[in-house]
Hints:
Number of strands: 8
CATH architecture: 3-Layer(aba) Sandwich
CATH class: Alpha Beta
Structural class: alpha/beta
Radius of gyration: 14 Å
Shape: globular
Strand order of the largest sheet: 5-4-8-6-7
Distance between the termini: 44 Å
Amino acid sequence: MAIGPGRPAPARRLIDRYGGGGFVVSGESIRGSILVAAGHTLAWPVAALAEVSAETIAPILDADPSIELVLLGCGPRLSAPPIALRAALKLRGVALEPMDTGAACRTFNVVTAEDRRVAAALIAV
């Protein structure tokens, strides 16, 4: 007997590994930076925090189901995200949590396991 809502949950993506200039997400190896949300992972042509904007993360902002939290992996160290990015996300009702990329990967897996509507924008290290 199935217990829960009538529609199945979207496929979960989990980050298996990071480093060496890329990631392994749910067994799939991807070089470079990535965007990750429920059910999909996309290559992300961003190499530095200064390149991050609402436009560059639009693919995860438009995800279905909608997200409530974006984890921003800033690279090897936590840095302040562009002010315009934080303002654009706030207007959409989406929280932004910047952290180093390793911490963002680990946090993404935990928050995903909690069935929260989370996405990650991860700069490769």
